[in-house]
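Write out the 3D structure for:
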Amino acid sequence: MNEKSEKANSRKASQASALVSHMDIDESELNDPFQALMEKAGNHGRYQTLYNFLFVGGLAFSGAMIYMNIILALNIPDHWCTVSGRENTNFTLEEWRDITLPKQADNRGRETFSNCEVFQMNFTEIQDWSTWNTSLRTNQTQACQNGWSYDKTWYESTIPTDHNWVCAKDLFVTNVFVVGRVTEVAGSFILGQMGDSYGRRLVYYISVVFCSLGRIGSIMCTSSYTWFLIMSGIVGLTVNSLFQSPQIIGMEISREEDRSRIAFFQSCGWSIGTTFMPLLYWWLGHWDSFMWLTSVPTATVLIFSKYVIESPRWLISKRRFRDAIVQLRKIAKINGRRFDVTEKELAEIYSQDKQDVTYGIASLFAGWRLARNTTIMGFSWCVVAVSYFTLVLFSSRMAGNPFLNFLYQSIVEIPAYIVGRYLGDTYGRRITNSVSFLVSFITCVPIIVYATDERHEYLMIYLATFIKFLNALTFFTVNLQCLEIYPTCMRQTGVALGTILANAIGVLAPYLVYLGTTVNIRAPYYILGTLFLLGGIGALFLPETLHKKLPDTMEEAGNFGRNDKFFSLPKLPPAPVPNQSLSAHPELTKLSQTEVSISP
């Protein structure tokens, strides 16, 4: 009976193999012996649920706040020169400003009061205001002599208002963001390669500790601009790997069909954090209490360190089989399963696989196909990053309630992730990514046309929010593609390279905002529109990753998408035949036996 069953399965496997060949699918993109190991330990159990909620979603929530809180704390509200003498008059604030301050054109071409200059005369010396008029006023101006007054409609205090980072120091804020982008590039380069060389878990601990200390240090060092920059730079060094390491581990220990779910967990955690943040600041009013409350939670995840694991998939790629079994048994124990594979058996399973020799980031350009994928992914990251930070920074400078502006652009991300997950799992990552970029390009056109007309202020907010929606959708898809295209031995390096390129170009975002807020409000959208168009075209040339296993070796990554057709949508692979996935690895047959659960 068993012999007949084996022959039937063998015949079905041969038929399935022929079907795979007919579908132009590379069998290496489907055959994944590691999934058989994870099925024995549990690849969709209690441990994965705990890990995804706590370290993927939870850390994304707290990490989003520690990353983005500085944007709100560095907001510069409307300000003007403080001019003594009004206390001796009956003038309203608006009338006093009209008398004492010169006018200038703002970024929309409107005439407004100067932020940094005052008429050069002593208004306290005027004794009889009933006979005084503006014809007696000098036209010469000078810089503010008595400090600045700030509009406290929305903010009781921000870091710039407490330390007067305005006018001659108006680039102080921009430079903080630039330093953040530069250090993110350096940190991604170092920690990304460390993650693939020394493990995801080590990089996770480094990121949590230094990110927390850096932001707490920056709160305590605002009186010294140099130290504030240094502490902000420490956050930048480690903040990207704070998100990358847990997500990569989560994907490497889960089923193929759960990969978009894991990306969804992290994306939602991020959006909930950035949605909660402006409401908290609006309620508190003061930057210092706001910064403390949004920075400390990241450090608290260290309490749950006993649940942090090293990726067994990465350990196997490094041929550290004993360590991999320790991690797999830890997963199996929490999942209520027994994992009894020995080190010798695991070594036999992977006896034909050789450890790849890699050369850091340079290995991502080994071969034409991998180099092309890496280049397009890098450019996609650049477009997503520069548009994201430009829109977020710009939202805090737009007219109206800055907290609601920030909130609107954050809250639209959650439905964007829902739509992105559905489209990505239905029509594929490639088409979803490209269409989102192209629709963003089209949306920039009416913004450019109507941005200077104050009557269309709310239309501009709605359109900018819609672009933010599309940006979140694209981020979700690009992030997922990036994790699925690169091999296990280079996965964190590949994600880090995208981050490096994104932040290298992201350095431009603060200057785009500066250009839009001080020169021409349309300027950022000319640039963003061009980037969206190029990103949409480039994304079409990426391979489809839906329904394909994570590549483990450089060879698999170099062949990834080799048989993809340009004008096609992803198809479900043929239904698996019993033991078909084990045919290339006979040693795995033992794993197909009935599991024995461990009593809780």
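The beta strands are 79-81, 103-105, 111-113, 117-119, 141-143, 148-150.
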